[in-house]
Amino acid sequence: MAVSLTEGVIMKMLNGEVTSETDMMPVLQVTELKLIQSKLHQNQESSNRYKFLLSDGTDLAAGMLNTSLNSLVNQGTIQLGSVIRLTHYICNLIQTRRIVVIMQLEVIVEKCNIIGNPKEPGHSSISLQRGGVNTQSNGGSEQQQARRSDVNGGRYGVSANSPQPQVVHNSSDAGRYGVSANSPQPQVSHNNSDAGRYGVSANSPQPQVSQRYGTGSGSRETSPSTRPYASSNAGYGGSRQEQPRAPTATTAYSRPVQSAYQPQQPPMYVNRGPVARNEAPPRINPIAALNPYQGRWTIKVRVTSKAELRRFNNPRGEGKLFSFDLLDADGGEIRVTCFNDAVDQFFDKIVVGNVYLISRGNLKPAQKNFNHLPNDYEIHLDSASTIQSCEDDGTIPRYHFHFRNISDIENMENNSTTDLIGIVSSISPTVAIMRKNLTEVQKRSLQLKDMSGRSVEVTMWGNFCNAEGQKLQNLCDSGVFPVLALKAGRIGEFNGKQVSTIGASQFFIEPDFPEARELRQWYEREGRNAHFTSISREFSGVGRQEVRKVIAQIKDEKLGTSEKPDWITVCATISFMKVENFCYTACPIMNGDRPCSKKVTNNGDGTWRCEKCDKCVDECDYRYILQIQLQDHTDLTWATAFQEAGEEIMGMSAKDLYYVKYENQDEEKFEDIIRSVAFTKYIFKLKIKEETYSDEQRVKATVVKAEKLNYSSNTRFMLEAIDKLKIGDANSLPIKAESSNYRSDAFNSGVGTSGTRDTASVDARREFGLPAANQVGQYGNQYSSDARSLGGFTSCNLCRSNSHVSANCPTLMSEPQGQYMGGTNAGGGMPRQHVGSY
Amino acid sequence: MDTSSPSVFVNGALMRRYIGQKVRTVIQVVGSDIGSVVGKSTDDLQIVVRGSSPTPPLTTYLEVIGIAESDNAIRAETWTNFGNSFDPHNYNELCKLANGEFKHLFI
């Protein structure tokens, strides 16, 4: 039967307009029905009370049924959907909620569909209730049950009842202190349950564990009792912990919620707790996770390197600093710097290789100029920082390398740092280089090869030259090609790519890494003989190494035909000089710090005009342009000598010579001069380049420098060359220009005094330096197959007969003298102009 | 070039091999007497050179060619002043090479 509910009455009830039946007797529908058991009142039997929601079609109100009417419910007269008329009731205000307590009613319809669409003012819910303190309060609290939002409310139920993820504490506050303001917020079920349980006024503080589940440290899925948060709770009504934990119902309740609704808490959360000092063992952060926005962190690290104490002076005054690098178990690296006081505090404590726990430092962005570690940050320690030494931890590696192949270096940008591992194929002695600011530095270079088939020049500066450099030199001298691992080498561009050491570099000679072993095996197998492309080009100019060659090699090796000119040194005699046009008229106007030197044309009236400067000058310069023929024992070549070299050769200025010839018309004197120049021996530095002259390719040689030959030093050079030759024999090295082995102990000569001789030659070697030796190595290789004459036993390697030596081999005799025949020339072809009598 | 009487390059240590034969060496003059000159060989051994010394002044270094009388004495036939700057080390090496590995290159 159609029934109509009293509309709008609920609102009025809630407002207070309608309070009892004296006002009206509304017809309402039961939309929810629940049995509540109350336990606390011991003098009664545990009585049942029914609580239900009454609807007027639009709104809902909570109601409680008088126990006397329970039977109606039990019988089923009142059920869900029943329409009833309240005949005797009262509306009570219990803590801001209106509860309708019904003493008498009439059932109009027992069973009916829900009429209308009633909405509860605020929330809808079913709440899990546990025992009520007093029905009233329970009822009151229940009224505002909320589901998820309850959880919110409970969790974050700050005054505004808005979810505030990070303010878990606040929410706990709210929970704890029971929203002291007793604010009209929806109460969390937990609250309620607790309230119910502990019979305090609703919203009593409660253990927050259940709440905690939902909170940020979702990472901590441990049982409540072990929660460190528990300790942080200590600050709050401390005794809470002992209270029985929220029963599983609530936990069960909270868990699903938590997974659904889990604001991300920063892991630091616990340490930012306003109260409890968390003294639990600190959590170890990985270096990779450090950032300036984190508060307190702790890292467990090993010190991989420690720099020296440095003092500095800046506008703010004096100071001192030192830094050290750290490595942790995950392979993260970071640098730590200490200034002034921190230096005093920590300098002695830090030992390379030990493991420490470091905490409370400041994180700053890394200064890439000084810091070459792959980390965006660096740590600055101050007096508040702590460093605690701890036991060695096997999980933290000693060193962390990030090796690259040499071929990769070509693609890497300059000034970046890298780690390298390779075989040292050659090493040159230390040279002192003058820097632009006029300080001298020690420099030593070596060639490093690796499996990528490339080799690169590694330059050592300063201290490295002496310590590690010498060790490497010794190893190379004895024929061992050591494996070298270099940490933090800087890539530079100087003659191709090359690698330099920086302050933070570290060398590891013959290290015990798997890469090193692999490298060694590869080298034994194939690397020794493989061809290596050097990505560091050797060329001339400042610091070029003297490459001694013979003139015949210019043709043989096709010098000058590659892109860049070749610079070589030869020891040769001037055999001829063109006397016509030995100089030209040049422009004297200074162009910077050099005179223009372009040819000037005679204007006819005594002035000279320069095209480049576009000026006329009265007096022109005379500059040499000598065409000379150079000859050594192998070949001859034409070369052009310009002003500087020309003066050295001629011994007088071009102007003087010009005057002698043209002005003074002193032919005789001129001839004398020329004659004296001819057949003088010099050490020439030549620049060889192929140039195109109207479709014709010609290899031209320019004399860059001409030095009068110093017999003594040249002889030493020769001696070394001889030694190389012999050692090359003994070791039968493959042909590799840059390899130089000194295995004097393996020298199998019949000379009695070989002992002393070797030391002497070793000295000579050292004195003279390796660069020459490089060259001789080449000689040696060519001759290595030749003349092995040991104290009387001669055999000609060319034709295998015993009567003569390869030098005198008849197979060669047919060739015109003076021709240098590549590799077939005999060992006797060694330049020995100074040896023997003239 | 006159190859009729070849002389072997020797230093102090090598002289004993060629006793009675013509040798040549360079010595650093230490002292001179009538009829003999005492000098230091390029390998720091003492050599006595007998014979008529050349007209003074003698330079620091002196080459003598003559017959080796014993392992430290030469009867000189030819004396040549080699000047004051000379590299004895190189000469020493020469001697060793000339008598050792490269003996075949010398007469």
- Give the helix level of chain A as a range of percent: 10-25%
The largest pleated sheet of chain B is described as: 5 strands, mixed, barrel
The number of helical elements of chain A comes to 21
| Gap between N and C termini of chain A | 147 Å
Return residue spans of chain B where pLDDT drops below 50 for at least 5 consecutive residues. Answer: none
Count of strand segments of chain B: 6
The CATH class of the domain at 548-727 in chain A is identified as Mainly Beta
What is the ordering of alpha helices and beta strands of chain B? EEEEEEH
Looking at the overall shape, the CATH architecture of the domain at 548-727 in chain A is Beta Barrel
Pfam families (chain B): Rep_fac-A_3
Protein name (chain B): Replication factor A protein 3
Subcellular location (chain B): Nucleus
Main location (chain B): nucleus
Description:
The complex is a heterodimer of chains A (838) and B (107). Helices cover 24% and strands 28% of the residues of chain A. In chain A, strands 6, 7, 8, 9, 10, 11, 12 and 13 form an eight-stranded mixed sheet that branches. Chain A has a five-stranded mixed beta barrel with strand order 1-2-3-5-4. Chain A has 838 residues and is an alpha+beta fold. Among the domains of chain A are: 91 residues, Nucleic acid-binding proteins (OB fold (Dihydrolipoamide Acetyltransferase, E2P), Beta Barrel), CATH 2.40.50; 103 residues, OB fold (Dihydrolipoamide Acetyltransferase, E2P) (Beta Barrel), CATH 2.40.50; 132 residues, Nucleic acid-binding proteins (OB fold (Dihydrolipoamide Acetyltransferase, E2P)), CATH 2.40.50.140; 180 residues, Nucleic acid-binding proteins (OB fold (Dihydrolipoamide Acetyltransferase, E2P)), CATH 2.40.50.140. In chain A, a hairpin with a 4-residue loop joins strand 27 and strand 28. The C terminus of chain A is likely disordered. Chain A starts with 8 loop residues before the first helix and ends in a 25-residue tail after the last helix. Chain B has a five-stranded mixed barrel with strand order 2-3-4-6-5. In chain B, strand 3 and strand 4 form a beta hairpin. Chain B is globular, with a radius of gyration of 13 Å. At the A-B interface, helix 18 and helix 19 of A face helix 1 of B.
